[in-house]
């Protein structure tokens, strides 16, 4: 398949099951909501080394938040329930409780509930109070700038991690410009995050390594400096490859984000330096969810 001069490989991105949650963070203004959210989602690019993958989903207006203040929603994903619960409580305590004017609320309904402020209330040392509103419990914890307000629990849902596509270009600036165009388009899609710095990965990996202690290692087939040293997937004119990884609540959410991202790159045309779009396919070793590029690019917008 070729779209506007850009080749779309007949392959698929391979993704795996995760558990996910959403938290709404509000503050006196967006600046402080972002301070809290950026701290909470920091060092959360990959479950390989961070425990969770997290990111800011979108901004929220005063009309959309529980306390009528500006805010942001964040999504957080982990390979299992236990890790997700541990990471959520730790990051809430260190990043939201500590941030001036910040408050936190559940951002997703589910029969499965995990702690949001349930244990953080003990920071109040007996001075904390609670209120039950519409069957939801909220905790008011006295802190030095006033009160920390937090909903007791949030929902936990089944999710998918590891949706992805690769951008193959004739130069590093061309690959990065295309990735930035894709991320701008993908950020408009709900229920997904792109957890790596700026949404872009330069160190895509393959499963396994020659070293026994490594679970993953550099994707040598897509490294331009290894064309003469490995079984390369790159033609002579490709000098840079960048990857976009997507985590989402559902399969259709990830597929739609991939579609708009790839389309944004194709809209730049062949003259942009992008020659091909491919994907991380690990031969079924990684996960059960397969995002087929040709099917995604021939599907209608959702």
Mind explaining what this structure looks like?
Catalyzes the transfer of a formyl group from 5-formyl tetrahydromethanopterin (5-formyl-H(4)MPT) to methanofuran (MFR) to produce formylmethanofuran (formyl-MFR) and tetrahydromethanopterin (H(4)MPT). One of its GO terms (molecular function) is formylmethanofuran-tetrahydromethanopterin N-formyltransferase activity. Homotetramer. With 302 residues, this protein is α+β, with helices and mostly antiparallel strands. Strands 1, 2, 3, 4, 5, 6, 12, 13, 16, 17 and 18 form an 11-stranded mixed sheet that branches. It folds into 2 domains: 2-14 and 159-297, Alpha-Beta Plaits; 19-157, Alpha-Beta Plaits (2-Layer Sandwich), CATH 3.30.70. The mean pLDDT is 95. It contains 6 helices and 18 strands.
List the SSEs and their pairings.
Layout: E1 2-3, E2 6-8, E3 12-26, H1 30-40, H2 47-50, E4 53-60, E5 71-78, H3 81-96, E6 103-106, E7 113-115, E8 129-133, E9 136-143, E10 146-151, E11 153-155, E12 157-169, H4 172-186, E13 192-193, E14 205-207, E15 216-218, E16 240-248, H5 251-268, E17 274-278, E18 289-292, H6 293-298
Parallel strand pairs: 2-17
Antiparallel strand pairs: 1-2, 3-5, 3-6, 3-12, 3-18, 4-5, 7-11, 8-9, 9-10, 12-16, 12-17, 13-16, 14-15
Essential attributes:
11-stranded mixed beta sheet, 34% strand, single chain, 2 domains, Alpha-Beta Plaits, 3-stranded antiparallel beta sheet, alpha+beta, 302 residues
């Amino acid at each position: 398949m070729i779209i506007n001069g850009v080749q779309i490989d007949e392959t698929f991105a391979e993704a795996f099951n995760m558990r996910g949650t959403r938290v709404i963070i509000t503050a006196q203004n967006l600046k402080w909501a972002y301070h809290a959210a950026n701290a909470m989602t920091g060092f959360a690019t990959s479950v390989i080394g961070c425990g969770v993958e997290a990111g800011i989903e979108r901004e929220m207006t005063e009309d959309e938040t529980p306390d009528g203040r500006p805010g942001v929603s964040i999504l957080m994903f982990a390979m299992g329930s236990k890790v997700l619960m541990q990471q959520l409580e730790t990051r809430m305590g260190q990043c939201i409780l500590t941030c001036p004017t910040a408050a936190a609320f559940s951002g997703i309904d589910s029969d499965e509930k995990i702690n949001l402020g349930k244990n953080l209330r003990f920071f109040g040392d007996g001075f904390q109070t609670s209120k039950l509103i519409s069957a939801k419990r909220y905790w008011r914890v006295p802190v030095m700038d006033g009160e920390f307000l937090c909903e007791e629990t949030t929902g936990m849902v089944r999710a998918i991690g590891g949706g992805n596509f690769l951008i193959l270009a004739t130069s590093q600036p061309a690959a990065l410009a295309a990735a930035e165009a894709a991320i701008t388009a993908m950020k408009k899609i709900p229920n997904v995050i792109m957890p790596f710095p700026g949404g872009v990965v330069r160190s895509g990996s393959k499963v396994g390594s020659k070293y026994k202690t490594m679970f993953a290692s550099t994707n040598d087939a897509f490294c331009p400096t290894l064309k003469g040293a490995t079984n390369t997937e790159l033609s002579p004119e490709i000098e840079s490859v960048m990857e976009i990884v997507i985590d989402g609540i559902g399969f259709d959410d990830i597929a739609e984000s991939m579609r708009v991202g790839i389309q944004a790159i194709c809209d730049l045309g062949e003259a942009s330096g992008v020659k091909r779009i491919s994907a991380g396919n690990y031969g079924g070793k990684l996960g059960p969810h397969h995002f087929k590029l040709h099917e995604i690019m021939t599907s209608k917008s959702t």
